[in-house]
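Task: fold both queries, return tokens.
Query 1:
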Amino acid sequence: MKDLYLIRHAKSDWEYAHLNDFDRPLNERGLRDAPRMAAKISKDWKRPELILSSPATRAYQTAQFFRETWNVSWNDFSLQESIYEATPEALLETLSWFTSRVSRIAIIGHNPGLSLLIRQLTGSDVELKTCCFAKVSTDHPEFKNSGCKLVDTLSPSDL
């Protein structure tokens, strides 16, 4: 069994008009929601063996709350440029580099790529809003366009 945790970055700050999209940090709500979501998810689901994060500031900040709460070492954390503004196909390609080594992977990234990936893998019409979580599982050795199941979703409003 392979598990994929998909987490959209927490709410970002649009206050700094001079920053480009890549450099936008989390806002007050994002800084509140990310640790709460990390705490809840770490109680309900096993720690991932690997966390892959977009290097965009808001995703990286979100990822750190999850990495610390799950107690994932820096050796099992990787920034992947391919996750920023990724299509579902790009996300699957990134996953393919790691799925032979681990059974549980978390990706912290962006929409629309994450929501489209869930739809492509499971057929479920899930829209990950900021700081939302989805768990997808498969019995196959890799995540493919079929044979995956949406196991759970969680949003900050559920807490």
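Query 1 returned. Query 2:
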Amino acid sequence: METETTMMLVELQKNWIDIFSALLVPTIALVGIIVAILQWSTNRNRLKHELFDRRYRVFSTTKDFLGSILRNGNMTQDAEREYLVGTTGSVFLFDEEIEKYLNETLWHLAVDLQTLEAELQGHPVGEVRSKNVKEQREIKDKLMKELRNLDTKFSKYLHLSH
């Protein structure tokens, strides 16, 4: 009787060992899948943050550029250099609309203002000078409007949603 009980216990232990052995591989696979999903999620969030940082640098550079022009009345060489360096690669970070806005709209307004300022230097007081000053005022008004709308323009690119 004792041997029969011992054999039943051995058989029961063997069954449990077989069950645990069978469950071990799927459990390891499930843990591997969970770890992979967590790594994917972490990498995805890191990519979002890096993209946000790069886009925010372009936004900040643009805001500083417009502020510098409006503060100084014209584009300085330092502001020009910082803007060109700071917006390099914007084609890869934003859609075509923002890329054109940065490299055509804002840049052209700044260059037009700089050109008018250079032309103003040689003109005496008179109609030509007054026309130049008026054109500069119009460009500065446009730049002020762009500065005020900059947050709205960039807002869809500067949201971190989790």
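Both queries returned. Flag for query 2: The mean pLDDT is 89.
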